[in-house]
Amino acid sequence: MIRALDVVLSLLGLVLGLPLLLVLWLVGRFDTGAPLFRQQRVGRGQRPFTLVKFRTMRPDTASVASHLADAAAITRFGHFLRRTKLDELPQLWNVLRGDMSLVGPRPCLTNQHELIAEREQRGVFAVRPGITGLAQVNGVDMSEPARLAEMDAEMVASLSLRDYFRFILLTATGKGSGDRVR
User: What is the 3-state secondary structure (H, E, C) of the chain?
Assistant: First the structure.
């Protein structure tokens, strides 16, 4: 049921959001010269996949978790994208492809070994990672691996259809702060 909703909602989001996606891509092209950002992330069953987002940092920025990145690397347009969470829109493609779900644990980087171990211990990799979830709407990010993995496991164990829509609605209305940048 959740996968069917993911497909329908991500397809709908991509089709209806196409004009916005094109405008953001164009502005991003002028901002950084490379509006899309691709990064290897850890997916369901710990299989790697390529996550797609709008670029919020200069192209020469090191590929590290947001909380380890230099805040000065975020462009002015990038601040806008992060604040509005519009940088996440291209991930609808990842959802449509089956790499992700709309709701699930945020996919971590392949070099975040502590978080991977915490999630593995709690069975979090049994589900597709998501664009949003319990931790995101509560402002818990990857800078707290054990707490994040606990919250992810709690969500995985109890995710209902009601929660699925609630997390999407809370994220769309601005709940949660996203990943911290130092």
Answer: CHHHHHHHHHHHHHHHCHHHHHHHHHHHHHHHCCCEEEEEEECHHHCEEEEEEECCECCCCCCCCHHHCCHHHECHHHHHHHHHCHHHCCHHHHHHHCCCEEECCCCCECCCHHHHHHHHHHCHHHCCCEEECHHHHCCCCCCCHHHHHHHHHHHHHHCCHHHHHHHHHHHHCCCCCCCCCC
Q: Judge contact between 123 and 158, C-beta under 8 A.
A: no
What's the pLDDT tens digit per position in 42-53?
999 999 999 999
CB contact at 8 A, 14 and 25: no
CB 24 within 8 A of CB 103: no
The closest alpha carbon to 49, from 91, 77, 88, belongs to 91
Contact criterion met (CB below 8 Å) for 163 and 49: no
pLDDT in tens, 38-91: 999 999 999 999 999 999 988 777 665 555 556 777 899 999 998 888 999 999
Contact (CB, 8 A) for 54 and 29:
no
